[in-house]
Design brief:
Blueprint: E1 2-8, H1 16-27, E2 32-36, H2 55-66, E3 69-73, H3 83-93, E4 105-112, H4 119-128, E5 135-136, E6 142-145, H5 160-180
Parallel strand pairs: 1-2, 1-3, 3-4, 4-5, 4-6
């Protein structure tokens, strides 16, 4: 089973994106193991803190390093992605030469009550992810519109069509991780 470091880009107590992440986790049971990153406890990026890095930073980097892939579940704020995501990306990429993001497969999803979901914010984030050497999954795109009752109190998707689409998305993400994720060392017998 692949481990996915999950970054929820909302710190709101009753975040619809945190609920969406839990629904995806439930759909992915037996296929992907979700490990949630605590990006809310990270201080604002400050290069001076590397002399004695905060525990939240060292934990973040260890979780990313141990993961096979990354899933970013994000709201859209002012037609962009939340600053807490950029802050986490910066902490994970430093100090220079010690980035935890290198070569990790990543997928973006997000939800909002709006009709276009998080399309604009995800587009903005997709522009910078390759700079972190993250391998971005292009399709399918998931711009999820939250509607009352679509995810129940047990994190179940209540609509069959939506559940089918999201199950297909998770299957594709798993194949993407298999294809672009860490390679096992090959044992070659010499004659």
């Amino acid at each position: 089973m692949k481990t996915v470091a999950v970054m929820v880009g909302s710190l709101t107590k009753n975040s619809i994106n945190a609920t969406f992440a839990k629904a995806l986790e439930k759909l992915a049971a037996g296929q992907l193991k979700f490990d949630y990153l605590d990006i809310g406890s990270l201080p604002h990026y400050n290069n001076d803190l590397w002399d004695n890095p905060p525990e939240a930073v060292t934990k973040l980097k260890a979780q990313i390093a141990a993961a096979d892939a990354v899933l970013i579940v994000m709201p859209e704020i002012n037609r962009s992605f939340p600053g807490v995501i950029k802050n986490a990306l910066d902490w994970g990429s430093r100090p220079w030469g010690q980035s935890a993001w290198l070569g990790k497969p990543v997928s973006l999803v997000g939800t909002t009550p709006g009709a276009i979901g998080t399309a604009v914010g995800q587009g903005h984030l997709r522009q910078i992810l390759p700079l972190f050497d993250l391998v971005v999954m292009g399709q399918p795109e998931v711009y999820f519109q939250t509607k009352p009752g679509l995810i129940d109190e047990h994190f179940e998707i209540t609509d069959d069509v939506t559940r089918g689409f999201l199950t297909g998305y998770l299957d594709k993400f798993t194949r993407f991780i298999d294809h672009h994720g860490p390679r096992e060392a090959l044992a070659v017998a010499a004659e």
